[in-house]
Amino acid sequence: MSSMEVISQIKKTEKEAEEIRRQAIQEAQSIINSAEVEAEELADRMLKETIERGNSLMAETEAEARREIEVLKQENQARISELKALAQSNLDEAVSFVLGRIVKDHGSN
What we know:
Layout: H1 3-108
């Protein structure tokens, strides 16, 4: 093999090595770009899922609060009815007492 053939072979090998290097860089960049896109998509999905879960939890909490409010309203309404009945019985007793005093005081005169 002549020196020209050796030089030609070296140049050819260098070109092939440069092409392999260029393809490796291109492939690496493609992998990085793909990973970045996947990471953004994953972050978007996680954000959406987090927001949906948060909204769901908020709705569940609001529904539970409404149920508790309704129970408390019913309990308070029952207590109000009891207090009204007690007040009415006390009123009847007070009226009877006052009438008895009026009759007694009026009868003494």
